[in-house]
Write a structure and sequence with these properties.
4-stranded antiparallel beta sheet; Methylamine Dehydrogenase, Chain H; 30 strands; mainly beta
Length: 494
């Protein structure tokens, strides 16, 4: 009937969001509490693990799928201020109020390198490609670019004359790691080359307000700034590079809370850079806007009296973590039931209807069914397979990851309270390996074990009925009286 059967197979790598649904969190799903007060958190590149930096110097790692803690170890003596993952997921870079940064091994939980800093570290970031290069921002110092060999290079930020103190400078790598984007407290954005640290582009944000946050989108060519004027602005890096040094650049999009004039504690892009999420400073409220048109699509409200300490969006899913009162709160989409995925002929009913049974419904072979045309197709016909791969770069991956040894999951052993109860087969094997006992000895052993117990019980019951002990005078008199009355009862019975 058919010359050939053409099968179209679509292979999608990764876990993209639903293309025709809402791609942002809608409600609070659960909270993660390890007993340590979390201050900051970060996802790894695949979104399988999330690490939380705590106020007692601990790093706590959770599995995102199982929502369980898989690793915990201490790296600092004071509270952790920032944390960053390496590209392969095997190392963590953390900073603390003790003016130190630590490179730690994730699996072993051991410190690989520890460095002393000139000031309290405000933010740190590992290079997107190189795991031995770090970008460090301070509260009262210029940002530096450092390697694991402790080679430090100060980024030459432009300052005003007669100014000796530098504060409030934020910086971040771009997506490729070839440039560093910085923002100062005068509202100026500067772009530097990583290799030469030369200034290649700069502009001033409208209003000259201090820049508090600078975030680069995980996908696309965007970055955002959060200024003291309570406005979040989105820029395109290619446009900034075309403007050059001291150019004029207008934002692609601006979002704000024009009603309440809310100030923002933390801002983040979504995993696909289609949404912008910001946490308010005075309350536990998360605002979500569309990046293209700037419309507000959702406001997530937490508990009253709480404040947002940090916020992070999942790389591939419509989920986000916020930190409040030392706990990680997971915001995700509300589940929707789709029974047609399990039964294609499933029909949803608005009201009850009477079911009409088919005549051949319970037959072993349906005699009334029509033979489909596909059954007449010869199985030996040629089959053409067409495989369509989604671009890896669209899902956050690249071609240089093919030979990279990465750590995406941490395996843990289950908690066993009583190992003896969970190993019945081992006990059976031990019993079967014991020497066999003859049947006669088994009966003798059983008699020796049971006879004293039965005798003791019988003697105790007899003494209780007699009202005395057999060794006393009253006990002996009672026994003699019973013997004299026993023959009389026997003759009466006859």
């Amino acid at each position: 009937l058919y010359d050939s059967l053409i099968i179209l197979i679509v292979v999608v790598i990764g876990e993209p969001s639903e293309p025709f649904g809402q791609c942002y969190p809608e409600e609070l799903e659960t909270s993660l509490d390890s007993g340590h007060l979390a201050l900051t958190c970060r996802f790894n590149r695949w979104g399988t693990l999330v690490v939380a930096g705590c106020n007692d110097g601990y790093l706590v790692i959770y599995d995102f799928v199982t929502r369980r803690m898989v690793k915990k170890y201490v790296t600092h003596m004071h509270a952790i201020t920032a944390v960053s993952w390496s590209r392969d997921g095997k190392y963590l870079l953390s900073s603390s109020f003790d003016e130190t940064i630590v490179v730690s091994d994730v699996v072993a939980g051991e410190t690989v390198k520890k460095f002393s800093m000139p000031s309290i570290v405000n933010d740190i970031q590992m290079h997107p490609v190189k795991k031995d290069q770090y970008l460090i921002c301070f509260l009262q110092h210029m940002p530096i670019l450092m390697t694991i060999d402790d080679q430090r290079t100060i980024i030459p930020i432009e300052t005003e004359k007669n100014t000796t103190e530098i504060s409030g400078i934020v910086a971040s790598f771009d997506k490729s790691g070839n440039r560093i984007i910085c923002g100062n407290n005068k509202g100026k954005v500067m772009v530097y080359d990583v290799d030469s640290l030369s200034l290649i582009a700069s502009f001033v944000v409208t209003g000259n307000h201090p820049i508090r946050t600078l975030i680069v989108a995980p996908r696309g060519d965007f970055f955002l700034t959060n200024s003291n004027d309570r406005i979040i602005r989105v820029f395109t890096l290619s446009t900034v590079l075309e403007a050059g040094v001291d150019g004029t650049v207008l934002p692609n999009q601006k979002v704000q809370d024009s009603v309440n004039r809310t100030s923002w504690k933390v801002c983040r892009f979504s995993g696909d850079a289609e949404y912008i999420c910001a946490g308010s400073s005075g309350s536990h409220s998360l605002y979500i806007w569309e990046r293209n048109n700037g419309s507000l699509v959702k406001i997530l409200q937490g508990s009253k009296g709480e404040q947002v300490a940090d916020l992070i969006w999942h790389p591939t899913r419509a989920a986000a973590f916020s930190i409040s009162n030392g706990k990680l709160l997971l915001w995700s989409q509300s589940p929707t039931e789709n029974w047609s995925a399990f039964a294609p002929d499933f029909k949803e009913l608005d009201e009850n209807i009477e079911y009409e049974e088919r005549e051949s419904e319970f037959d072993v072979e349906d005699e009334d069914r029509s033979i489909p045309e596909t059954e007449n197709v010869n199985c030996e016909d040629q089959v053409d397979l067409t495989v369509i791969d989604q671009k890896l770069t669209e899902l956050g991956y690249s071609s240089d990851e093919d030979g990279m040894d990465s750590l995406r999951l941490i395996l843990i052993a289950p908690d066993v309270e009583n190992p003896e109860e969970t190993l019945p087969d081992a006990n059976k094997d031990a019993a079967s390996k014991a020497e066999p006992v003859p049947a006669g000895k088994k009966r003798e052993t059983a008699a020796k074990m049971t006879t004293p117990v039965c005798r003791s019980v019988r003697t105790t019951e007899t003494r209780r009925r007699r009202g005395g002990k057999s060794g006393t005078t009253a006990g002996r008199r009672g026994m003699a009286a019973r013997r004299r009355r026993a023959p009389t009862r026997s003759r009466g019975a006859r």
